[in-house]
């Protein structure tokens, strides 16, 4: 069985408001999938359905090949968007408590708790009641609680919201390390494009309760546009340049600028050595070079016509 999670045509309606509509997404075993989309797109709703906190109104969800509901929730570890922690319990006690919910106790639980506190930089706070932690520390403890039982599927709803940049990068490392070590599948939501690029093997964009695009970061970028390379050369005779560059394979378009050309194509960066060689051969020297490639933000914009952080209203009347 290849997939950790298979969602097929999920629909969820809250008080007449369609929140998920024909939502389909497959998540492969062992991959890190990032779910991105604006506020209110339905990300947390999908996660609540996976966690068993909500039932879809229609559609099928399979977890590790089994219909959701049949599979033991022990296989899943969820760190929800709102921290779920006991304020009067210390960090260690919180971890031991969450471990016990999944049948992890004794020495094993104490070892795991100590290891997680260490990995997430909370070692010094182990005996501090969690009500006295900073916001970022609570966020990290919330993550640790989801990992106590070493789940096969880890689900993190905005794990790094509210973390400082250094801590965020530390969290990426910890999460990657855990996935590598345990072979777990990871589904995470984020509003940070750079986080998705750094961490995720695949990305799914969700808008108004539907997956609007999915693929590896590079696949997605290729879908919306090509790379552009801007060259300025000396002596810089554009007509001559165009004739030379057009002969190179994989170049889609070359247009003249004042002292050079703009070249368009897929993966232009990999063609640069070839281009510069051809130009040198014909007596042209590159004096300036800039490359631009579409960003994931461009992808989302193109797919949805809306900005990532914008709230998009879902109106059932417009559905058919
Ligand atoms: N229990 C509920 N009752 C009614 N409406 C709800 C409920 N839970 C969520 N919603 C609505 O469902 C929509 C999707 O919410 P959801 O929390 O899934 O969005 P999200 O993609 O996680 O957004 P964010 O990026 O802000 O976390 C929102 O319009 C929200 O108001
Ligand atoms: Mg959410």
Task: Give the helices and strands as they follow along the chain.
Answer: EEEHEEEHHHEHEHEEHEHEEHEH
Shape, principal axes of CA atoms: elongated
- How many domains, as an integer? 2
Main β sheet profile:
6 strands, mixed
CATH fold descriptor of the largest domain:
Rossmann fold
The Cα radius of gyration reads 24 Å
* Unreliable runs: 310-320
Number of helices: 10
| Content of β-strand | 25-35%
Structural class: alpha/beta
Distinct compounds present: adenosine-5'-triphosphate, magnesium ion
Give the strand order of the largest sheet, numbering strands 1, 2, ... along the chain: 6-7-8-3-9-10
- Please state the average pLDDT score: 87
Number of strands: 14
Distance from first to last alpha carbon: 34 Å
């Amino acid at each position: 069985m290849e997939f950790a999670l298979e969602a097929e045509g999920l629909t969820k309606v809250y008080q007449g408001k369609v929140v998920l509509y024909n939502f389909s997404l497959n998540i492969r075993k062992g991959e890190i999938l990032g779910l991105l989309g604006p506020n209110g797109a339905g990300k947390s709703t999908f996660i609540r359905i996976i966690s068993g906190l909500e039932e879809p109104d229609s559609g099928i969800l399979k977890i590790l090949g089994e219909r959701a509901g049949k599979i033991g929730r022990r296989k899943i570890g969820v760190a929800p968007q709102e921290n779920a922690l006991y304020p009067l319990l210390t960090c260690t006690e919180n971890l031991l408590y969450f471990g016990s919910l999944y049948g992890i106790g004794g020495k094993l639980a104490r070892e795991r708790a100590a290891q997680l506190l260490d990995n997430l930089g909370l070692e010094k706070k182990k005996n501090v009641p969690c009500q006295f932690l900073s916001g970022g520390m609570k966020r990290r403890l919330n993550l640790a609680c989801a990992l106590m039982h070493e789940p096969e599927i880890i689900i993190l709803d905005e794990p790094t919201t509210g973390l400082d940049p250094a801590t965020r990068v530390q969290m990426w490392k910890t999460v990657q390390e855990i996935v590598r070590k345990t072979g777990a599948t990871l589904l995470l939501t984020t509003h940070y494009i750079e986080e998705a690029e750094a961490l995720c093997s695949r990305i799914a964009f969700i808008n108004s309760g539907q997956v609007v695009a999915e693929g590896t970061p590079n696949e997605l970028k290729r879908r919306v546009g090509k790379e552009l390379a801007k060259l300025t050369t000396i002596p810089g005779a554009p007509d001559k340049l165009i004739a030379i560059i057009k002969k190179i394979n994989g170049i889609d378009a070359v247009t003249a600028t004042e002292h050079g050309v703009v070249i368009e194509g897929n993966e232009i960066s990999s063609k640069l050595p070839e281009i510069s060689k051809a130009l040198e051969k014909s007596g042209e020297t590159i004096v300036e070079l800039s490359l631009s490639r579409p960003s994931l933000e461009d992808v989302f914009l193109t797919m949805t016509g809306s900005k990532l952080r914008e709230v998009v209203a879902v109106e059932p009347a417009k559905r058919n």
